[in-house]
Amino acid sequence: MSNECPIPQLTLDLGFPPGKISLYLYKLDSYNLLIDAGPYIPQYIETLEKKLSNEFGLSMHDLTTIAYTHVHVDHAGMSGFIAEKYPSIQQWIHKSDADFFKIIETYWPESVKNSGAPPDVLEALAKQHYFYQKIRTPLSVTNQFYGTQTTFTIGKKIFEVIHVPGHSPGCVIYIDHKNEIVLSGDHILDKISPIISYSSETFDGLGLYLQSLQKLLKWKSYTFWPAHGNVITNVEERVKFLLKHHDKRIKEVYQQLKKKEITTPYELIPELFEFDLPTDQFSLAIAEINAHLYHLQHKGLAVKINKTQWKVAE
Ligand SMILES: [Zn+2]
Ligand SMILES: [Zn+2]
Fold first, then answer.
1. Half-sphere exposure of 21 (CA within 13 A, CB side)
2. Distance 278 CA to ligand 1 centre (A)
3. Is the whole-model pTM more than 0.85?
4. Counting ligands in written order, which one lies closest to the CA of residue 169?
5. Is 161 exposed, middle or buried (0-12, 13-18, 19+ CB in 10 A)?
6. Distance, CA 198 to ligand 1 centroid (Å)?
7. Which of 32, 37, 54, 67 could lock onto 92 through a cystine, CB 3.0 to 4.6 A?
8. In a domain? residue 30
9. Distance CA 279, CA 283 (A)
């Protein structure tokens, strides 16, 4: 296994957390495929254009296809802009993320509002939400992936596309068997535990994420190239670490529910995160706690008693 990416990797500054994103480029006969694109930030787009031109002699007009790993703004925020400015580019995403996009603007403010956070925190989170709204154009894909496993052919190149729901409902990874690499988006990262961005009474985001992690072991001899951070050369070890992390947190959330008679996701933050959390991290903490609460609910161990409050199942 090599630490050098066998295909061109374009790493760009995002200007907001998690800091940098890596896109992957395939130049295949008359096709130019980019895995992920980026947010709708003029300076970012300018840098991307420069990089394509200086390093690969390509302009945006030369791109034929963009395949997204998932719908998050740092990956697909410029989708609508691309559709408008470069209509010949084919854009692909999984159907579940195309569906998720329809509620993405309302889901997040709702779950923050229902977390039990006080007004000053809600205000700070509303500002953060406004920032993300500004850097997202409408998702405007031309093609969708369906089901749990499919192939994706560009010229003579065939990728296996595996649906790995959890980080988002329609996350996919692209498997390039010839190079023995997996382009894993945000599904697995070398240092960060990916957030579970959608969970509800009918959708156990964390449960699906844990299953999706297990799927990766099938390609444990491959090298995993993520969208943020460093290459993962030992995916088995990383999967085990993340499974253990969530197992511990599931138990912690359950213990806290047992201890408090009735609680809100917001009240659980200081119990589960040791450090003094900066306000802009609250949204991540709320997503993490919600994912664990809904997972416990799906296992029959927790009950949501109203929009905001939770208790342990009797
Ligand atoms: Zn993401
Ligand atoms: Zn990302």
1. 26
2. 20
3. yes
4. 1
5. buried
6. 11
7. 67
8. yes
9. 8
> Could you tell me the distance, in angstroms and rounded to a whole number, from the CA of residue 93 to the centre of ligand 1?
13
Q: Report yes or no on 200 lying in a domain.
A: yes
User: Ligand 2 centroid vs 48 CA: distance in angstroms?
Assistant: 16
Q: Residue 260 carries which DSSP code? A: S
CATH code of the domain containing 240 = 3.60.15.10
Domain residues for 44? 9-250
Please give the distance, rounded to the nearest whole angstrom, from the Cα atom of residue 223 to the centre of ligand 2.
19
One digit per residue, pLDDT tens: the chain, 314 residues? 557 999 999 999 999 999 999 999 999 989 999 999 999 999 999 999 999 999 999 999 999 999 999 999 999 999 999 999 999 999 999 999 999 999 999 998 899 999 999 998 899 899 999 999 999 999 999 999 999 999 999 999 999 999 999 999 999 999 999 999 999 999 999 999 999 999 999 999 999 999 999 999 999 999 999 999 999 999 999 999 999 999 999 999 999 999 998 999 999 998 888 767 777 788 889 999 999 999 999 999 999 999 999 999 98
Tokens at 126, concatenated: 């509303």
| Gap from CA of 142 to ligand 2 centroid (Å) | 21
Residue 94 forms part of a structural domain: yes
Decide: residue 203, CB within 10 A, 0-12 exposed, 13-18 middle, 19+ buried: middle
Taking the centre of ligand 1 as the mean of its atom positions, its distance from the CA of residue 312, in whole angstroms, is 30
- Say how many domains are in the chain: 1
Task: Kindly tell me the burial class for residue 84, based on how many C-beta atoms sit within 10 Å of its own C-beta (0-12, 13-18, 19 or more).
Answer: exposed
| Alpha-carbon span 94 to 12, nearest angstrom | 24
**Residue 163 within a domain:** yes
Cis, peptide link before residue 18, omega less than 30° from 0: yes
